[in-house]
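As a next step, we paired sequence with structure tokens, yielding the entry below.
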Amino acid sequence: MTPNPALGVVFHWLGGLASGSFYVPFRFVKKWSWETYWLAGGVFSWIVVPWALGFYMTSHLTAVLHEASWNTLFWVYFFGFLWGFGGLTFGLAIRYLGMSLGMAMVLGYCAAFGTLMPPIFHGQFGHVAHTQSGQVILAGIAVCMVGIALAGVAGTSKEREMSPEQRTAVIKEFSLKKGILVATFSGIMSACFSYGLDAGAEIRQITLRHGTSTLWQGLPILVVVLLGGFTTNFAWCLILNFRNKTGYEYFSSRIRSHQPGREQEPIVENAIDAPGEEGAKAPPAPGPPGAPERAPMLNNYFFCALAGTLWYFQFFFYTMGETQMGAYKFSCWTMQMASIIIFSSLWGIALHEWRGASVRTKSWLGLSLAVLVASTVIVGYGNYLGTLPQTAAR
């Protein structure tokens, strides 16, 4: 199949739309704790949907995984496992730095490390930097980093316009030193998802030999890397279920007493999950006075399944976009990050999170979105140049 970078950009935009939208169904989950609905949705994100689509859209999934070397399977799984730790510390970065600065730092590290480390590891960076197409792609990556920084400026400007009480509610434990350390760790760990996909090259080759379409060659890798992510998230959610005595919520609609201090619970979202302020807002915890006595179990499981499925589709489209980028598919990670921020910001606008912000703040937001869109176009154009023989090298 001949690469089509323009189509690849569209696929990444669709992936960004899925990622920016997946948290919306969680808003309809009622009377469940964060750890309960996150794990319920995660079962679909990391287990059910990857395996279902892997079986349906690829050839001989289990045989492909059986033929892959243990070394490959280990590293793909291990990087997925490490990616989960990026989520465990993401909430702490937001707690210490605030949503805007914390998000900008984590996403900046995630975009930079997730994009540049694979070609550096494979010894390809020098070649990339000495080709016209590679130089355009690197320029697009730089533009993306500027866009992320501008998004941070917009968010910081918005926070400055809050009342002191609102600002305290958003940043309860501000600590620049702790925040920088945690954001650095979280961003680097979040980038491990990119390394897991890169480590699965052998799985791609095997599934293609079994007759899988080029467009779906990345789906078997997702099965393994998401299993690693499931391990981390599953363990943490069960710990929270045990500590907060919320495990009953999976099986019983009866609401028990509210656990004090639940609002302080660190979230386990990741830089590639929902980088918009709405992504950190959980539905109300169970048990305030006057609340209904029972949780709507069927409703909750339905919306968790919908949210989990949407979450998976960000990488479903990512792997499709990757097949269209030719020799420089490492740049897909930058396009994915930019697209996620674009669509999660648009959801923030739709959900009135920027209502009341000054014209100056909204201008920063608009500029950041324009720069991020431009970065995806620049990176896509660089990949297009890479498909032209006369510009492949100088």
In short: The chain has 15 helices and no strands.
